[in-house]
């Protein structure tokens, strides 16, 4: 890192990924990933914590761990609002998926596209690093990122303690949900975004969510326990500028701001 690294004018984007070698020995299988955007003073602790998490994740042993740190000029960071959190519990995956479809339709996604999103995640044989982008009307996949998917990056909350108390007030208290609310809030602030659907690839974590431009609706169970495949789908307007959207998802630094108590 060059000069001025501890200056308040900069934050640091920390990205950590764990992967396993595929059967062929060539293709890497995504195991776990995490993102933070922190000050220079916080960096050592955050890197240690993320590293610890990557080492103890539940999806198998890593053959490769990649850590990338980039200095970010604060003037390039956009401040965006957090989505409002709701949580719903269901007796079965089928019921949760039924509500998922109704929620997505409510958020402006066609029923065909909503069903397609669920099927695409259900039919994955291995988890993707990023998400798939679908046309919100036809359900057609419009990105060309293949099995990798489009990964959102360069994001965090603006104020850690305010964010944690916002999560607690919303009845949420775990790291997965913390990261997912930040990711979904960033996605929701993109121009041509309509909605998102996601459930985790953690075999012990069965809560997923649907999100709109305003709401982050948690639904449980979105899959059966011991299923280690999950995924993420973004629904976008039919005339979306995909280059612009993907550039925003991957590169635009954002900090998520929560409403005051
Ligand atoms: C993921 O692991 O990326 C998905 C996390 C889903 C979190 C759902 C929640 O508990 O709010």
Written overview of the protein:
The chain has helices spanning 43-55, 93-106, 111-122, 160-169, 175-188, 242-251; strands at 10-21, 28-38, 64-73, 78-81, 84-89, 132-135, 155-157, 193-199, 208-211, 215-220, 231-236, 254-257. It has six helices and twelve strands. A hairpin with an 8-residue loop joins strand 8 and strand 9. The strands form three sheets. Strands 5-10-9-8-11-6 form a six-stranded mixed beta sheet, with helices on both faces. It has a three-stranded antiparallel beta sheet with strand order 2-1-3, with helices on one face. Strands 4-12-7 form a three-stranded parallel beta sheet, covered by helices on one side. It has 261 residues and is α/β, with parallel strands linked by helices. The structure holds pimelic acid (PML).
């Amino acid at each position: 890192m060059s000069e001025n690294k501890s200056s308040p004018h900069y934050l640091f984007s920390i990205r950590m990924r764990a992967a396993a070698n595929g059967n062929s020995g060539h293709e890497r299988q995504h195991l776990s990933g995490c993102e933070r955007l922190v000050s220079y003073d916080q960096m050592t602790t955050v890197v240690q914590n993320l590293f610890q998490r990557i080492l103890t994740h539940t999806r198998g042993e890593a053959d490769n761990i990649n850590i990338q740190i980039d200095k970010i000029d604060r003037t390039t960071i956009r401040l965006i609002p957090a989505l409002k959190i709701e949580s719903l519990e269901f007796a079965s995956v089928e019921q949760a998926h039924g509500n998922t479809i109704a929620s997505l339709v409510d958020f402006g996604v066609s029923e065909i596209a909503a069903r397609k999103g669920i099927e695409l995640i259900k039919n994955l044989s291995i988890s993707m690093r990023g998400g798939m982008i679908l046309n919100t009307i036809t359900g057609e996949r419009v990105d060309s990122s293949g099995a990798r998917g489009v990964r959102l990056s360069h994001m965090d909350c603006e104020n850690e303690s305010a964010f944690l108390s916002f999560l607690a007030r919303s009845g949420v208290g775990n790291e997965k949900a913390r990261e997912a609310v930040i990711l979904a809030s960033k996605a929701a602030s993109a121009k041509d975004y309509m909605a998102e659907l996601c459930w985790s690839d953690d075999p012990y974590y069965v809560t997923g969510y649907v999100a709109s431009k305003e709401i982050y609706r948690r639904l449980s169970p979105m899959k059966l326990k011991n299923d280690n495949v999950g995924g993420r789908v973004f629904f976008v307007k039919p005339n979306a500028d995909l280059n612009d959207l993907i550039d925003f998802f991957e590169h635009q630094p954002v900090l998520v701001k929560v409403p005051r108590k």
